[in-house]
């Protein structure tokens, strides 16, 4: 390990959008959810985080930069991820550079981490999901960690719950698990990215401003005050996840769209049922819902599903390219650019 050298790894991780939402923790420090959730991972070239991790004997402390600005690594979540990955580090040898790092050396070495999001941070577009998944994945590569994606997902979960679902492409389920230590609270892939290639995801950015209530504090308040959350976690989501898994396996868009819209609406109803109430959607979001509902009802079968996370931006999932292009026409007609709205729309995740 002697001499001056630097070893680097760069990785890119896409964000994911939940179609069955995670909202509420049963354990705050281990980040264990009150219900299972299911998401779709976006294409890597669109909403994604790119992270470079570097190690060198000349580094005096662990440091991190997000979008070029240094941020503190003192938070418990970063420390949990670093600690869990370091504990699983194995020997690394780079013959080209003449570097040999033993398992024991990793305890003394410090890392520098630089991370960039190609989309607005903390605006309800799941930036922490892509961020922590990428951090854990790139550190695991650097330190030659042998664990599989599911085991890494349980580490990413300790950075941010939704991050565990970004370790896989396609459709992913975060199993809430039963163990008190969280060892079985991890992500599994339900179907890969090729399984349902006709779907087109459009994100309508209603606002890129940072949200007022963070997901972490919002869900804490919901757990403490919302009776609807208790009902949702115990009675609604267990049945809904079974139906959603079937809809995904059978590529049954009518069922998929019905479940996706209903789950988004129930999540926002839980936010309203929280004391004090939390408002993530705005008037533009509500107008988008009305527009999609009216259109779906005027057709023989639903054309588009909508879902909204902890922010006003709409994630619209069209059944195919034709529906996506009609949807864009409608969006541009009802929400013209430069009108009295700050909505811009752009197409993401065309998987065909
Ligand atoms: C989800 N959201 O399933 C839900 C839907 C927002 C609404 O996961 O406290 O940033 O870091 O575990 O993962 C956002 O919550 O919260 C989220 P923490 P996270 O995607």
TrEMBL record:
Alphabetical UniProt keywords: ATP-binding, Lipid biosynthesis, Lipid metabolism, Lyase, Nucleotide-binding, Peroxisome, Steroid biosynthesis, Steroid metabolism, Sterol biosynthesis, Sterol metabolism
Catalytic reaction equation(s): (R)-5-diphosphomevalonate + ATP = isopentenyl diphosphate + ADP + phosphate + CO2
Mvd1 C-terminal domain sequence ranges: 201-352
Transmembrane residue ranges: none
GO cellular component, as recorded: cytosol; peroxisome
Role description: Performs the first committed step in the biosynthesis of isoprene-containing compounds such as sterols and terpenoids.
Family: Belongs to the diphosphomevalonate decarboxylase family.
Protein name per Swiss-Prot or TrEMBL: Diphosphomevalonate decarboxylase
Annotated organism of origin: Rhodamnia argentea
First-to-last residue of the parent protein present: 1 to 352 of 418
